[in-house]
Design goal:
The N terminus is likely disordered. This protein has one helix and 19 strands. Helix content is about 0%, strand content about 65%.
C-alpha cells in the first residue's frame, strides 16, 4: 500500500482455473481441476490507513467436497512518512474458512497481527525488526488449534553497485497439544492412555514448539530488463523429538493434505528465480527450487473413532520448476487488466512411499484491479 492513496475506495477481482496433475501431492496420482474466485475491496479512510474486505471461493470439478468459502478483512496502518529514515508498519487481519459438509472438520477462524520497524542507516544499508502473532481455531476440533509468536531481525545491504543482499534471522514459539509416550493417564482428561498399533502408549499434554530460522537472499539485475534472485532458508525445531501431533481427517486421503500440520516442517530450501521484461508488454518469471523437509509426526483420528494410525517419521526431498507469463494492460481509465498463464512441475521423494510423487499443474488466471 502506498502511504499516499489516490482514491478512497479500490476494488480487485481475480479468477483462476487450475488443472492439477497431482491434486493431493502423493502417490495416488489423483488429478482434478478447480476454479478459484476472489474479490477484495480496499478502503482508505485517510492516506496512512488501508482497510480491506475480501471473499474467496473454490469449486472442484470432480471432488465437490473439497470446495470452500472464506471471508475476512484487515487493517494496515503506516504512521510514518514515506521518505523518513525510521519506518513503522502494523497490520491485523481475520479470516473465516468454511468447507463443504464432508470436510467441515477443517472449518477454522484465523487471526493475524504483525508490527515491524525499520531504519535506513544510509542509501545502501537498511535494518528492521518484526513481531507477529497468529491464532488458528478449528470450530470442531480444539485439539488441533494453533497459536504462534515470531520475532525476526533483518537487514538489506547494497554492495558494489547493483548487488543486494538481504539477511533475516527469526525465532518462533508455538502452543500446541502434543502426544507424548506415557504409561500414565491422560493429563488433561484423566482417561487411560490409548495404545497404538506399534504397542506404545500415548497421552495428551500441552506443549510448546520452538524454532529458529535463517534466510539470506541475493539479488541483482542481469541486463536492463532481467533480474535474478537466489534465496536460502534453514529452519530447525527444538524440544519436539518425542512429540506426536494431533491431526484431523474425515476418512479420505485428501484430508491429510488439508491437515494443519501439512505445512509444518524443518530443514532447508534453495530457490532461484528469474524475472524478465524483454518481451513487449509481458512479464516472464521462471524458477527452480529444492526443499529438504523433515515433518513432525502426526496421528489422525477418523470420523470421531478414537484410534491411531502407525506413527512413523517422514523425510522428503522435493524439487520444483515453474514458469509464469503475465500480460498486464493498463486502460486509459486507470483500470489494470491482467492475464496470467503458469505451469509448474514437482518431483518429491519421501521416506514414506505414499509421498513419492510427481505432477504437472497448469493454470490460467484473470485479474481486474481498479
Amino acid at each position: 500500500m502506498s502511504v499516499t492513496a489516490l482514491a478512497d475506495v479500490g476494488f480487485d477481482f481475480s479468477c483462476t482455473h487450475i488443472d492439477a496433475g497431482n491434486l493431493f501431492n502423493d502417490s495416488t496420482d489423483i488429478t482434478d481441476a478447480y476454479t478459484t474466485a476472489s474479490s477484495t475491496i480496499f478502503y482508505y479512510p485517510h492516506p496512512k490507513t488501508e482497510i480491506t474486505f475480501n471473499n474467496n471461493y473454490a469449486y472442484y470439478r470432480d471432488r465437490l467436497y473439497l470446495g470452500y468459502f472464506s471471508s475476512g478483512g484487515g487493517v494496515t496502518y503506516i504512521p510514518t512518512s514515506e521518505g523518513a529514515k525510521f519506518q513503522l508498519y502494523s497490520s491485523g487481519s481475520f479470516t473465516g474458512m468454511l468447507y463443504r459438509k464432508g470436510m467441515s472438520d477443517f472449518d477454522n477462524n484465523t487471526f493475524d497481527l504483525s508490527v515491524s520497524i525499520g531504519y535506513k542507516i544510509d542509501e545502501s544499508v537498511r535494518i528492521r525488526q518484526g513481531l507477529s502473532y497468529k491464532s488458528t481455531a478449528y470450530t470442531k476440533s480444539e485439539s488441533s488449534d494453533q497459536e504462534s509468536f515470531e520475532m525476526s531481525f533483518g537487514g538489506n545491504f547494497r554492495l558494489l553497485g547493483s548487488n543486494v543482499v538481504d539477511l533475516e534471522l527469526g525465532y518462533a514459539f508455538a502452543n500446541f497439544d502434543f502426544i507424548y509416550p506415557t504409561d500414565a493417564v491422560f493429563p488433561k482428561l484423566g482417561l487411560p492412555a490409548r495404545i497404538t498399533p506399534d504397542g506404545r502408549f500415548y497421552g495428551f499434554t500441552d506443549g510448546q514448539m520452538k524454532s529458529v530460522y535463517f534466510s539470506p537472499r541475493y539479488s541483482r539485475p542481469i541486463g536492463p530488463k532481467t533480474g535474478l534472485a537466489i534465496t536460502y532458508t534453514y529452519r530447525e525445531f527444538f524440544n519436539t523429538e518425542d512429540a506426536v501431533l494431533l491431526g484431523i481427517t474425515s476418512g479420505d486421503i485428501s484430508a491429510e493434505n488439508l491437515s494443519p500440520w501439512s505445512s509444518v516442517w524443518q530443514g532447508r530450501a534453495v530457490t532461484l528465480m528469474l524475472k524478465t521484461y524483454v518481451f513487449p508488454k509481458m512479464i516472464v518469471s521462471a524458477g527452480v527450487g529444492y526443499w529438504n523437509k523433515v515433518f513432525l509426526r502426526t496421528y489422525y483420528g477418523e470420523d470421531g473413532i478414537d484410534y491411531f494410525f502407525q506413527v512413523t517419521d517422514r523425510h522428503d526431498d522435493k524439487s520444483k520448476f515453474y514458469i509464469s507469463i503475465q500480460d498486464p494492460i493498463l486502460m486509459e481509465s486507470g483500470v489494470l487488466v491482467e492475464t496470467t498463464i503458469s505451469a509448474d512441475y514437482t518431483n518429491n521423494t519421501s521416506s514414506k512411499p505414499l509421498y513419492d510423487y510427481s505432477g504437472l499443474s497448469v493454470s490460467i488466471g484473470f485479474r481486474v484491479h481498479m
